[in-house]
Design a protein that fits this description.
about 475 residues; alpha+beta; Immunoglobulin-like; 2 domains; 16 helices; 20 strands; about 40% helix; elongated
Amino acid sequence: MSKEKTGIKIPTPWRIKRYYVYAIMTAIALILPWITVGGNHFFLLSFDKLKLHLAFIQFDMQELYLMPFLLMLMFLGIFGMTVMGGRVFCGWVCPQTVFRVIYRDLIETKLLGLRKRIKNKQQEPDMSKPENKVKKVVAILIWTVLAIIAASDLLWFFVPPEDFFAYLQNPTEHWTLIGAVLGIAAFLIYDIVFLQENFCIYVCPYSRVQSVLYDEHTVMALYDMHRGGDIYDGHEKKYSKQKDLLADQPNAECTACEACVTVCPTHIDIRQGLQLECINCLECVDACTTVMGKLGKPSLVTWSSDYEIVDRKGKTQYFRPKVIAYMVLLVAITIMLGFMGSTKEHMLLNINKETRLYSEKALDNGKVKVDNSYIFLLQNTENEPMEFFFEIIQPEGINGKISIVKPTKPFRVIPGTKKKKIVTLSTTDVLVENDRKDTIIPITIHAYALDKDGKKSEKISVIRHTTFVFPKKSVLERAK
């Protein structure tokens, strides 16, 4: 907090608070891909290895049903933020805004002095001066390096850093990766250096969606025309000087300094009312707070709602039914995501029966051996090789037992590969006596991994259901 000569306390500018948020977000984005727990990342959607890592748990691509829940969380979160705080996402979270602040405020203004003041974003540098041309080239070069880092950081959520740098050592074998980095970096250079805030105004669809989400309690940067005076008549600006404003509106407090205009990165005048170009960066609030603070008055531009500032109906209601509904949905989807993620299968198993229903063979003891063959397609989703085997949970209501005759011992499966195994189940008992047709008997297969002691793993096991076909009585008699 700082104190002016009038004794009015000027709060810490929103701009400085945004810088803190940007720094924290940047640190998280750069550090998070490097953090692993048991070889798993917090978030990784790996297309080359067909894996999804979520909250340090590894999922196979067959478990990508979790992705829609993540997308719903993201969109509902952004929409909920908009309902409550307007385009606060744009001004405080969006990478476009963060990158523009880094380039314009840090590189061009603070480091190189190409722009004279952070508070004046309307006046472009005079590029007729040779020294400014040199500074502009240096600024672009610095941003090019940062753009490549940003592009790489984005890809680290799809290609983990340990693989990313290994692939770069063999560039001729990974042109797609290198092309993606250079392509994203080239877009960021064009976007941040040349397109600038026009991306927010003309390209980004979010600005068009926001008007549908707003209500009278949505918090945004607003000019209090009841105190400051009515500067505009529709789209026409009526007053450019304070004396002209005071001549028609003697109680108007606006000084017509236009500090709120010159500081706006999207080049709007907040005194004209709600505009889709506004990204809720609150730079105009800071500017007016400083000017009016020197006069011993509160700011004419505040972060508030139409309900409180324009209509003057009362205090803004933050936790209203619409906002609560978004919160309930977010909590519900988070719980569903957590529940479904907790039921992750540590091995994947598909069982398909072979085309031949069964085979029968007479034995020396007078019995008939009936075999059913299956194709087991198994995948180890862990990070280390495992030994797998299975057992049959005997069905109820039959007069005998079904046994495993092939394979006879556990088999090894390495991570990330599918293991095809021919499995034969057999019985010498007369399970069912049916004179008319073959009998389809439902059976349950319990597949499991073995731990280091050779015992069944309680964690890595799955249950699958299939059928055992037992021949009719005439087939058994003929086999004898």
